[in-house]
Design brief:
Blueprint (H helix, E strand, L loop, with lengths): L1 H17 L1 H7 L7 H20 L4 H14 L1 H9 L11 H21 L11
């Protein structure tokens, strides 16, 4: 689970840096400097992914990625409710509803993989 989460965030971070235009389009209007925010979030994802793989930084990285998943949720809501067309992604609610429902799981996943929470598995 740890490697999969790190790989997910590494890939997402690289995508934020190499193809930022689609991410900029879903940033809500109340967020200032969307290009800068997308660039910073890309680096946050990359550093978080690397931090998950380093035992000394794992707990910090897990907490940061959980907070990150909460902070980017408005962009996902914006994407879904305003039907912003992204070429590589579907526009239907068959895509958006599961994506929105999976966001809390990303928060849990980061906390679980970093050892900050143990639910539903007992602590060893």
């Amino acid at each position: 689970m740890l490697i999969a989460l790190a790989a997910f965030y590494l890939a997402a971070g690289v995508l934020h840096l190499t193809a930022p235009q689609d991410f900029v389009r879903i940033v809500p209007g109340f967020v200032p400097w969307p290009e800068t925010v997308v660039w910073l979030t890309g680096w946050c994802e990359i550093f978080g992914a690397v931090g998950l793989l380093l035992p000394r930084l794992r707990r910090w990285a897990g907490a940061a990625l959980a907070l990150y998943a909460v902070c980017v949720f408005p962009a996902n809501i914006n994407h879904a409710f305003y039907s912003i067309d992204i070429a590589a992604l579907p526009t239907s609610w068959w895509y958006h509803a599961p994506r929105l429902m999976l966001q809390p799981i990303l928060v849990w996943w980061a906390l679980f993989c970093s050892g900050l929470i143990y639910w539903p598995a007992p602590r060893r």
